[in-house]
Amino acid sequence: MRFLKIFYLIGLLLIILSCTKTEEKPDLVVDIKVSKNGYEPNVITVERNKVVLFRITAVDEGIEQEPNSKYYGHCFYILPPYDVMVENIKNGETREVKVKMIYPGHHIFTCPYCVDFFPTKGDIYVK
């Protein structure tokens, strides 16, 4: 029984530590524009354990122009271990997400909708 409690607590701790989306006050704001030409900026450097407010603005319609389509607009996806996604950012719209940058190293962000058609990829370096 004691083993199960320890196993449960370790699992809970791993879940808590792996959650990077947050409602904490941001330490840094990064404004990003996304279009068929890619992200601007497409290289971002931040300090580890800082909360970053990413403000993503779509400056064109993206790959799909039908508002009812799953692939309408652009998105901003930081690949695992962050696994943070902001979907369906419409032309002229700004969407926000706060992320606690807890994993050091090189990480990629992209628009999975457009990646096969347009150069929508960027790099985040967490020091």
TrEMBL record:
Q: Which InterPro entries match?
A: Cupredoxin, EfeO_Cupredoxin
Identify the residues that the record assigns to the EfeO-type cupredoxin-like domain, covering every copy. 12-116
Q: Is DNA-binding set as a keyword in this record?
A: no
| Record keywords | Lipoprotein
Family annotation (Pfam families): Cupredoxin_1
PROSITE patterns with a match to the protein in the record:
PROKAR_LIPOPROTEIN
- Keyword set includes Transmembrane helix: no
Q: Which SUPFAM superfamilies match?
A: Cupredoxins (SSF49503)
Write the protein's name. Putative lipoprotein
Q: What is the lineage of its organism?
A: Bacteria, Pseudomonadati, Aquificota, Aquificia, Aquificales
